[in-house]
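Async update (no meeting this week)

Hi team, since we skipped the sync, here's where things stand on the single-chain job. The sequence we agreed to prioritize is pasted below, unchanged from the tracker. I ran it this morning and attached the output directly underneath so nobody has to dig for it. Comments welcome in thread, and please keep replies under the output.
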Amino acid sequence: MDGDSDKSMTIAITMPRPGAIRRHLPEDGVPLRVGWTWISEECVKNPCIDICKFDKKSGWCIGCGRTRDERKEWKKAPKKRLKEIKHDLPRRLEKLEERGKRAGD
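Output:
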């Protein structure tokens, strides 16, 4: 590099299928190791809104409406199961809101 202070590098990434790439960084934002996760258009979005407080009567999260078990299985469950869970959430959240237990959006 003959003393040049301007060093650059080009990295080419080939995506083998449609989708997006998401980077996972540690809490401090400094990548010690970068991992990549493929996110396809068919993914079921996680409904979590980072509240994770559960109503004692129903067992549902006051933020997203899932149960503790549904929250735990979310990352490993098949898409069909995720869609079943997500389909029921609006009804649950409505019931929580009627009882004054719903967290704000």
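Quick observations from my side:
Residues 16-26, 30-41 have pLDDT under 50 and may be disordered.
Residues 20-98 form one domain.
Reply here if anything looks off.
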